[in-house]
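HOLO CASE FILE
Compound: uridine-diphosphate-N-acetylglucosamine
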Amino acid sequence: MKSIKIISVVGARPNFMKMAPIHNAFIQLEIRNKSKYIGPSIRHLICHTGQHYDKRMSDIFFNDLNLPKPDYYLGVGSGSHAEQTAKIMIEFEKVLLAEKPDLVLVYGDVNSTIACSLVASKIGIKIAHVEAGLRSFDPSMPEEINRILTDHLSDFLFVSEQSGLKNLNKEGISKEKIFFVGNTMIDSLVSYFPKSKKSNILNTFNIHNDQFILVTLHRPSNVDDKNNLKKIIDLLNQLAELRKIIFPVHPRTKANIKIHSHKLHPNLIMTEPIGYIDFLTLMKNAELVFTDSGGIQEETTYLKVPCITLRDNTERPSTVTVGTNLLVGRDLLAAKKSILRILKGKIKKGEIPDLWDGKASKRIVKILMENFSKH
Ligand code: UD1
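Model generated. Tokens follow.
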């Protein structure tokens, strides 16, 4: 019987929930294959580069998502972009030479994504990119470079929203490689959401009845400049007069905040990064979310929770044109005005973008299997 070996590469926090439903879809396929032959046998291996390594940035997600221990852990850790990318490449090449997989699956736009795509392409192993085609058109974002290069190296481009199709078309990527499948991050949300009923996080922070604002900020453009970060904290202190604020602080942000040098309003709760299930619970119950994350713009759109995004652009435009997201630039005054409008009940109603239906991973696995069955 023909057998196919696939390696998924994950490294940073947002990769884990994009990969989990694909891993589960492969397992389901293998279970069905055992009872009745429906196609080649699949071996799906997980390689964690170790780009994110703290328990609260990594292990907690593997637990919450019921993922097995990775088959490979490269332990590369932090560093400059060049250092981190190079370390991942050196270690991942060893994995590919030992395993000789048929396909490498990469996710999103982090340094692990481009590093492993480059290695696979030079060895001549096929690459599938989950979340292809997104573009912020802002070359100063490291993620934008990662996205463009990964897409141009990939053999299968799995697109999560309409804008991706247009972008890839414009860049001249062959249509046969492009598949509009929907959003695997939303697959995770749909399938793990029932677990959030057991979360105790609202009690932990003593927050109920949608009377709180959830904040996450980690983009270098917002948090690397300490003066700018101070202005953000000042704004949060003002908003804390009106509502409780829950702010799980990313390590990059933490490194730049001297928490003790800021006088924090008692309603402004800065906490460690929070696990997947608890975070879903917080998002679902928040009155609004104030963020610069990519994934959270999508999750709030699906949950129809208002989202204010502190960025000049978004690579996920459907969250703005279709969903509940509002881009305010990096203008804190504009952010404050928009937040106050929402607190007064003036809420943008959103819809859910096409194919964000919890079935993207099944579509991806089906396409891959059809393709491998042919060869
Ligand atoms: C990375 C991704 C970004 C993604 C974000 C999600 C790139 C270029 N950026 O940014 O797209 O939105 O992850 O979180 O890949 N650190 C820890 N513990 C950890 C991980 C990091 O303390 O487990 C610290 C390190 O000091 C490190 C800093 O956080 O220097 C930033 O980590 P890094 O992986 O370089 O980038 P992120 O800002 O997390």
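CASE NOTES: The chain has a mean pLDDT of 96. Residues 12-14, 51-54, 57, 78, 109-111, 142-143, 218, 250-252, 255 surround uridine-diphosphate-N-acetylglucosamine (CB under 6 Å).
CLOSED: yes
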